[in-house]
Amino acid sequence: MNRHGWWRDAVIYQVYIRSFLDSTGDGIGDLAGVRAGLPYLKKLGVDGIWLSPFYPSPQHDHGYDVADHCGVDPLFGDLAGFDLLMATAHRLGIRVLLDVVPNHCSSEHPWFREALAAEPGSPARSRFHFTDGRGPDGAEPPNNWHAMFGGPAWTRITEPDGRPGQWYLHMFTPEQPDWNWRNPEIPAEFERVLRFWLDRGVDGFRIDVAAGLFKHPELPDSPDPEADARTRDSVNPLAWNQPEVHDVWRHWRAVCEEYTARDGCERLLVGEVSVPSAREHAKYVRADELHQAFFFDLLGAPWDADAFRKVISEAMQDIVGTGSTVTWVLNNHDQVRTVTRYGEAAVEGSGLGAARARAAALLMLALPGAAYVYQGEELGLPEVVDLPDDVLTDPIFRRTGSRARVRDGCRVPLPWSGQVSPFGFTSGTQSAKPWLPQPPYFAEYVTERALADTRSFWHLYRDGLQLRSALPQLGEGSLRWLDTPPDVLGFVRGDGLVCAVNFGTSPTAAPVSGTPLLTSGDCPPGALAGSTAAWWITDGTDL
């Protein structure tokens, strides 16, 4: 577990706890369920796991509204159960990253409750962004910003004496007030939080909204007030990506280095960074800041060889130059799953979406750097697009009334076994249904079936991870592009390992000779099938 720079080419599996495995029968996944699933993840071959928030929370945004950053919500277990999970993971050689949420907290957090009971201008309110409204009676929001999840970014409170009062800022929902990071109590509190979990043995942190935290000190109007809500991304330049945030990551990096110096085990900081360009992204992974930051441009790229080549080249140029490695990702708990995303773009339908998703997976695992895999990605799960309105829980739906960009469809609980719901997801003395309904067709994707079928998504991922560990050409390093026909992307890794992807639908000549090491589909002799990726080892003579 002490390998220096382990994170540079690690493959981390994202565990969305409430949808992974339920050990109690209440229909919601929990920490004991994660522990029970660790042998499955060990068999898959991942280096570590990232756990979604399990802290005490009223669950208005599925745990990203944190009421206590140093506890475990009874919904998921307790601290003793967490410690047992940590011990089991480390015994299996699996590292554990926690999701830390520093941009905002829950409206049930004790400090926010204290602020509501305090007077305007009080120290309690200065921990947040409380300010007077505009207009003669202060009845208008302080500025025109919109929340990312819909509606205005401000909510007016009723003062303790019953009068209409000040407004507070929330860039997501009213139940998630933003911290004021210009107040020195906030960075001090989060250093305490980091040390609490590092002292319990965690291997690092995934940082939610890592380009957030600071707002423009004058809170001026935005020239495009609906940008955040329209894109559901952090694009308001007055609310995100302020220069002061880099000092926070320098301090957090120093804390992690302190723990690394004690025992030689490197602690990782990986940020959720949404910024306009790879060059801006690179600023977050300078040598004294975050170790890594998710590179979302690959996830957002259309299924097109030129588009993939462009985003990969930009990442390799701008991010690798900092001394970090690129952190590739194709799926996560906020995005439409690749099988559906690529299928929607294909006239031929969802079968082609699955083929493209397999090819993209093999491409990602061949790229230099680290990769993150979202639970169910290794099963080829599609997005559940037909959930009834009355079961949707995403605050985006509650705030907007629209199903556009609602995230419940990628969060449906995993299918493990059997032919009918709950597909082995839930067990115990109770008989509650899964918190989101699983469609009948999930029977085609259960893990027991995937493990038994050597042609499944699961075996493609497992075989890719095994080769990635065994072959010195893969993992960290560089790549060299090959001259390829239109619709084909090909590159060389190290000494003669080639990855090629045919983005078209018809077979084309293989870019190199020989038998593929691994292929995402059926390749005719000497050819690369349409919507297929393959890896080859060559002697270098035709490169």
Q: How does this structure look, described?
A:
The protein has helices at 31-44, 79-91, 110-117, 185-198, 227-231, 245-263, 278-282, 297-300, 305-318, 338-344, 350-366, 395-400, 447-452, 457-470, and strands at 11-15, 48-51, 95-100, 130-131, 154-158, 164-169, 204-207, 268-271, 292-295, 327-329, 370-374, 479-481, 488-493, 497-502, 508-509, 518-519, 527-528, 532-537. It is of the alpha/beta class. The strands form four sheets. The chain has an eight-stranded parallel β-barrel with strand order 1-2-3-7-8-9-10-11. β12 (479-481) and β13 (488-493) form a beta hairpin. The radius of gyration is 24 Å and the shape is globular. The two termini are 37 Å apart. 49% of the residues are buried. The mean pLDDT is 94.
Please summarize what this structure is.
The chain has 543 residues and is an alpha/beta fold. Helix content is 27%, strand content 14%.
Rg on CA atoms, Å: 24 Å
What is the strand content?
5-15%
Q: What is the mean predicted local confidence, pLDDT?
A: 94
Helix coverage percent: 25-40%
User: Low-confidence segments, ≥5 residues, pLDDT <50?
Assistant: none
Topology:
Layout: E1 11-15, H1 31-44, E2 48-51, H2 79-91, E3 95-100, H3 110-117, E4 130-131, E5 154-158, E6 164-169, H4 185-198, E7 204-207, H5 227-231, H6 245-263, E8 268-271, H7 278-282, E9 292-295, H8 297-300, H9 305-318, E10 327-329, H10 338-344, H11 350-366, E11 370-374, H12 395-400, H13 447-452, H14 457-470, E12 479-481, E13 488-493, E14 497-502, E15 508-509, E16 518-519, E17 527-528, E18 532-537
Parallel strand pairs: 1-2, 1-11, 2-3, 3-7, 7-8, 8-9, 9-10, 10-11
Antiparallel strand pairs: 4-6, 5-6, 12-13, 13-14, 14-18, 15-17, 16-18
Helix pairs in contact: 1-2, 4-6, 10-11, 11-14
